[in-house]
Specification:
The protein has 4 helices and 11 strands, in the order αββααββββαβββββ. The protein starts with a helix and ends in a 20-residue tail after the last strand.
């Protein structure tokens, strides 16, 4: 069952659901919480830049991925935007970016991260088939952002980039999340 605004507020007030910085009232919708874009991005190299790297394997064997973050580091550049700066996301460009918010989900809730319809209508997708945020997840959400539209999109740190939809589990989870992405956060 999806949590309503009243249930979201209660979970936040009691400290069972933790989101920092503190959620503003304007960020709570009838059944979701808006999350905001941080200033840290991983910008993937273009095909031309990858070709210039020479010895780098140009394909990924999906059946044998052992360290996805090593691949991301090899083909991406991490940037941190200074205060007031923006990033222009070109058509067909793919980046990774964190939310500003750090979240801690209790064992009886799960969540989905979803894009915002206003941005989707311009061709911006916020996650690439990975919307689930499992019970007991703790960390910043890392978004897989793609510009599928015909126009460049200017990304500004602090904009409401996605929404978190919380769902109550039928029974509390007894297992804690074991994932390479548990406790993930943007580096300083």
């Amino acid at each position: 069952m999806v949590l309503s605004d009243q249930e979201i507020e209660l979970e936040l007030q009691t400290g069972r659901l933790i989101i920092t910085p503190e959620v503003k009232d304007a960020d709570i919708g009838p059944s979701s919480i808006d999350l905001h874009l941080s200033n840290r991005f991983t910008i993937f190299k273009t095909e031309e830049e990858l070709a210039q790297l020479g010895g780098l394997n140009q394909s990924v064997d999906l059946a044998n991925i052992t360290n996805v973050e090593a691949i991301v580091r090899a083909v991406g550049n991490e940037i941190s935007l200074a205060e007031g700066k923006t990033h222009e996301l070109a058509p067909r460009q793919f980046i990774l970016a964190y939310t500003q918010e750090y979240i801690k989900i209790p064992n009886y809730l799960a969540a989905r991260v979803e894009g915002r319809s206003t941005l989707a209508r311009l061709g911006l997708s916020i996650h690439q088939t990975a919307p689930t945020v499992h019970a007991t997840f703790e960390g910043q959400l890392r978004l897989e952002i793609m510009n599928n539209g015909p126009l460049p999109c200017v990304l500004s740190p602090g904009i409401a980039i996605c929404q978190l939809i919380l769902e109550r589990l039928g029974w509390p989870a007894i297992r804690s999340l074991t994932s390479a992405f548990q406790n993930q956060s943007q580096s300083p």
